[in-house]
Amino acid sequence: MDCLLKSIDKKTLKRWFFIDKRVGCFAEESVSFDFISSVTKLDQMDLKSNHTAPVLADPAPISKSRLVASSLLPYSSPAPVFSPNLLLTVPRKKTGILDDVRASSWLDAMKSSSPRHTSTRDYNHEIVSADTDVAYRTWMVKYPSALSSFEQITNFAKGKRIALFLDYDGTLSPIVDNPDFAFMSIDMRAAVAKVAKYFPTAIISGRSRDKVYGFVGLTDLYYAGSHGMDIMGPVRESSDYPPNCIRSTDKQGKGVKLFQPASEFLPMIDEVFNSLVNSTKEIKGAKVENNKFCVSVHYRNVDEKVDTFLGIRNIYLLEVMLSGMSIFLAYFINFCAHSYICFQNWKTVAQCVHDVIRNYPRLRLSHGRKVLEVRPVIDWDKGKALTFLLESLGLSNHDDVLPIYVGDDRTDEDAFKVLREGNLGYGILVSSAPKESNAFFSLRDPQEVMEFLKSLVNWKKTSVL
């Protein structure tokens, strides 16, 4: 309830109390707003605080230069270096910034990371659909389909070893309302199983490693959970183990290398998870997920916003029902009930998350597709995980290796960027809506991802013959 009230400012209160002079003429009553203000006043940032939880910024605009097949050959890249000190230096924030400003900036980021898809349920839906298709086709000039460009990809891949890296949600499985039911189809599982027989394949997901393994259920893959902060990869006797890396065994008893650079954050993550569950429990549709080394707050089923004037009629009705009470009490009771119901929206989610992680300067916030993710402040992401897996597989610093990364979310941009800036391979963005990316190619949805995987298998079979 606290974070619900914090999302309502004094101006909104006045607008509600002076809705209509026909009802009580509230302006003529000498009622002080001090009590209401003390309840709903926005919580200001502690001006003496020297730290705030950092927020991940959007990826920098990509360069206009495009990597073409001929530019990838030859290439060389430095050997990956894994520093034992992965902690980022958190810049000090200037004091005096109101918390609601930060919450508003998060709200803007939530909207930009969760683009609306144009609805076609309209009398002129044919025109709307046509405009959408034109925009998408124009976007595909810059990010051509990996299916229509498949021959270009395979021509460059001749004589090379392909290493395949896949995101899970939105890539191998459709985005669903309940993240616990993001199951991949039987056909998709078969396609992934076949492609893993021909190419080294890894899944790098924001989910916990155990959870994504439970969804996929295939043993011939390598898994990286929590955005690469929990990696299970193959053991190479000739390679040196970085810090936080131990030898272990998988479910089949096979020796594997387990790398968890954020292991010291586990108690903190559990504490934040419990706090977020408690602070969002009254928000209808909000779901908090513990992904071991990060916490995800899903707001896909939360209303983006609710018109504050929907409750005006209820105010009038309540006024009649409570005619025996004072006009102030009637308005105040209705205000509490109305704000509790109508302000359970995205801004409320952002405020609740902010109120929790503001006390944890070693955690940061990033935005995904209708999800807020709280992660440790360490120099590690899906791009670093990609580099680590290539080294673990013995595929780094080789001219005859072509990594391909397929993903749909903002967090996948780190991996796309590694491939682009190092001229290492191809990033493929899965998206049905135009958006800027560091990827080279695109696929519309998981169905097209499956077709691409099948095409890779067929190409490999025929190239061997």
UniProtKB/TrEMBL annotation:
Cofactors, names only: a divalent metal cation
Entries under Pfam families matching the protein? Trehalose_PPase
What this protein catalyses is: alpha,alpha-trehalose 6-phosphate + H2O = alpha,alpha-trehalose + phosphate
E.C. numbers: 3.1.3.12
For this UniProt record, the keywords arranged alphabetically read as follows:
Hydrolase, Membrane, Stress response, Transmembrane, Transmembrane helix
Q: Respond yes or no to whether keyword Magnesium is given for this record.
A: no
Membrane-spanning intervals of the chain: 315-333
Checking SUPFAM superfamilies in the record gives: HAD-like
Metabolic or biological pathway, per its Swiss-Prot or TrEMBL entry: Glycan biosynthesis; trehalose biosynthesis
A molecular function (GO) term: trehalose-phosphatase activity
* GO biological process entries: trehalose biosynthetic process
Matching NCBIfam families: T6PP (TIGR00685)
What is the annotated role of this protein in its UniProt record?
A: Removes the phosphate from trehalose 6-phosphate to produce free trehalose. Trehalose accumulation in plant may improve abiotic stress tolerance.
By sequence similarity, the record places it as follows: Belongs to the trehalose phosphatase family.
Name assigned to this protein: Trehalose 6-phosphate phosphatase
Q: Which organism is it from?
A: Gossypium trilobum
Taxonomy of the source species: Eukaryota, Viridiplantae, Streptophyta, Embryophyta, Tracheophyta
